[in-house]
Amino acid sequence: MDKSTFEDRKAIIAGPMHGSLQHDSAHKHVTGTADYIDDIPEPAGLLHGALGLSDRAHAEILSIDLSAVAAYPGVVWVFTGKDVPGVNDVSSNGSHDEPLLAEALVQFHGQPIFAVIAETRDAARRAARLAKIDYRDLPHWSDIDGALANGSPLVITPMTLRRGEPDTEMANAAMRLKGQMRIGGQEHFYLEGHIAVAIPGEDDEVTVWSSTQHPSEIQHIVGHVLDIPSNAVTVNVRRMGGGFGGKETQGNQFAALAAIAAKKLGRAIKFRPDRDEDMSATGKRHDFLVDYELGFDAEGRIHVVDATYAARCGFSSDLSGPVTDRALFHADSSYFYPHVHLASKPLKTHTVSNTAFRGFGGPQGMLGAERFIEEIAYAVGKDPLDVRKLNFYGQPGSERTLTPYHQEVEDNIIARIVEELEETAEYQARRNAIIAFNRDSRYIRKGIALTPVKFGISFTMTAFNQAGALVHIYQDGSIHLNHGGTEMGQGLYTKVAQVLADSFQVDIDRVKITATTTAKVPNTSATAASSGSDLNGMAAYDAARQIKERLVAFAAEKWDVEAVDVVFLPNRVRVGEIEIPFPDFIKQAYFARVQLSAAGFYKTPKIHWDRKAGRGTPFYYFAYGASCTEVSIDTLTGEYLIDRTDILHDVGRSLNPAIDLGQVEGAFVQGMGWLTTEELWWDDKGRLRTHAPSTYKIPLASDRPKIFNVRLAEWSENTEATIGRSKAVGEPPLMLAISVLEALSMAVASVANYKVCPRLDAPATPERVLMAVERMKRV
């Protein structure tokens, strides 16, 4: 049965796919019965690990005295980088620039130097603080300005995107301006921090339970540090208490340390850092400094863009290359640039190496683009929304469809999304009312903004766009599902189970969702890049297709009918004129020796990318959305309220509207935190001082918009052949929160009667808003 036949049949048979089914673990989340790694019953003889961290930002290690650490009651073993059996490196990209344990040189405050294994977690943590380490301090810098001032090296080769003639066309632009924007980083702040448990097996075998988005990478890293093949390492993940990209590579060190100790001591080992250590020793969202020059006409139509995106990457490369690349990929937001030059500058700093975070550089690139629009709007005296619409990509066939990386935008629905939201949110009437309100209000000022989202879906590393799934049907008709995707609360397991239940037309409770494990599906990609449902859903569908083809052939032969006369109906199968309950049908297939198991596989078609040339088709399709936010600020204190947000978001034909709505709402609030309250700060000694909830302010439930209207674009359907014609939903909605920053900017601009762009940097904390208000008073 080919794909088109299946999709045609699906259109007339009601199945669980596209339905608002409950998240499979929702009841466990709210009752506290969902098992995370720290809830697993501890094996007999379990030992606990703790990190010994550097208290210098950049220094040579002259000597290490760990005698007091080893002598602490309960300590079983203390080890350093010299005790690593294989290679002392946990870099995710083969660059070998990220030691598991620093040996001769430390490059950020909080870098692990040694590990302590003890009978209790408390003993391990207390002992780790007793080390005596002598250093020779070296010059250090912890931010972008320091890196630029000191001629910092780059952690990876930068990327450049170029189209048209930006160098010569800038001089031909009717109007020009230059500017700079600072964009802050963000801590992942999971509910469940990093954790790993390693259990030694016979010979060279080891089993690792890790809170990771990338089990296959943990498998590879553990084999790397133990000098054993990957087939000796099994990595299991049932669920994470949040991932957001921070568990794509950052779990490597904890799993590796646990595995080394487990094999050395022959006992199970658990590493669970506390929140302060977790925040100090693991990477965050990259902060950026964007320098730009724009050329445009008197109507606000962009003619040329020239911009450089400098990023604080930390001491090693980690994922900074693809993160800064994706920032450039989204530096166009939803807008066509006739002539464009974009360059990345991934700077080395003496801070923890920054890593993946929901959006993966895309939010920073897109935020810069919205600043471009805002700057132009103030320069020509127009509503920013009018300038946005003027610069949108065109429809296929027009000259305005080519991105800076030379991919055609063929599925553009941004104009329809924005126009629909503009009408339903009553944007124009409310904006006029806000301008009138600001004219008469002395201390409270309001702002409103409507901003678009266009986000590319696929890993830009082409090889990662593949997935596998393993499906078994047992004699009683129950179904076992395993795939390479990981569940971090986003509902991936539920969605893929819906795909499988829909394929066989059975109730969802007949499908058993099992923990992700490298022992069942090998060589998996990280659950990242918003691709979890796309890749794993299609892989599960492929496995179901194989089994169904065998079942159809069996039924056609046994009952002497044509293959088209075998139809899967809800919980039963029609064969010619008879209908057989699904479990009975499966049992008969078993006795006829039909193979009831299959390994499915999927690879994303059409995509390719040449980084050196800056050309290709890195994305399979784009997801779109728009948000309209209204805010109120107090010009005396800089404090503000998010009064109302209206969102219309495109997820294609949703696999599960209830889960997708939750993803949109959660992503918006997380993005709002990034752009308003969440501020990372390192002191002059390179110490992260915002390392706990007392100093790092994530949004609370009370910070959500007072009126929060969220809708999915129900009319949308993916033009590409994705699973169920759905679209990804993990990352794109985070950028809907840009409307909050833009609305705050309008409120600030009212103080100067909207004459100049406030150039409000992110995060727009109350302090930063107040300083911007004071600047506007002097205009």
From TrEMBL:
Domain of life: Bacteria
The enzyme's E.C. designation: 1.17.1.4
Cofactor(s) listed: Mo-molybdopterin; FAD; [2Fe-2S] cluster; Mo-molybdopterin cytosine dinucleotide
Database matches in Pfam families: Ald_Xan_dh_C, MoCoBD_1, MoCoBD_2
Top class in the EC scheme: oxidoreductase
Keywords from the named record: 2Fe-2S, Iron, Iron-sulfur, Metal-binding, Molybdenum, Oxidoreductase
A single MF term (Gene Ontology): 2 iron, 2 sulfur cluster binding
Domain Aldehyde oxidase/xanthine dehydrogenase a/b hammerhead: start-end pairs: 31-139
UniProt family annotation: Belongs to the xanthine dehydrogenase family.
Protein name (database record): Xanthine dehydrogenase molybdopterin binding subunit
Organism: Rhizobium leguminosarum
Gene from which this protein is expressed: xdhB
